[in-house]
Amino acid sequence: MVSIMKEEKTKDWLFIAFRIISIFIIVICLIFLYIWHKHNTANGDIQEELNSYAKVVEDVIENNSEEESPEVAEEQVNVLSVDFASLKEKNPDTVAWVKVDNTNIDFPVVKSADNNYYLKRNFNRQSNGAGWIYADYRTSFDELSQNTVIYGHNRRNGTMFSNLTFLLDNNWFSDENNKKFYFSTESSNYIAEIFSVYSMKESSVRTVTDFPDNTQFEEFINSVKSMSNYDFGVEVSAEDKVITLCTCGNNTKYRILVHAKLVKK
Q1: Where are the strands (E) in the chain, listed by range?
Q2: What is the pTM of this model?
Q3: What CATH class has 92-264?
């Protein structure tokens, strides 16, 4: 009888311990969920506020080619008009703006002294697990690097760079407008013509901003073009400037990479 009572007490204690542990796990999960939601909401509010600092406008550019007839001496193009002065008052680390049509990617780009600072800080430099959209610290913006590399998190709520997953679907490019995106710096406006999109294991990703010589840069261009899920038919040479957008895949072991040729407007 005593043995049975001891067994029952042991079971009772085990049940109580199990309930306590379960409640503890649930509370921890709720706290993490609250923080995740809070960070996403904070960044959404910041993005909404900052969107007033950049807009797509129609611009007229002169065609200086001697071969062109007078009828096409000027060309109307859409470019980003960005109020960098106001943005830099809010955050001096602001270096550019990137906008991808038909997605929610429409952000000022920041740059710090390393690639870790904005992993867990937002545009206002507040601690935030969603981070912000930031350029590789080695990238030059005085005179653009050969390869401007920009990073952003792939958030499960569809924010930051998560919409880059759309570009892995070849049907996405049935719309010609989806083959290009906008990129602006303080000194220049660009249209980025996509020439490669793919995903690869994180351990295989090597982000390089400048190359020792044109031969190695051409090898890089040809290598990423060969890995593309889609043939864009865009000619890229060592004389061009390239931009690379990078984010995590749904599986954090993979990265999604988008490479585009920058055409100044």
Answers
A1: 54-62, 74-82, 94-99, 106-110, 134-135, 147-151, 180-185, 189-201, 241-248, 254-264
A2: 0.81
A3: mainly beta
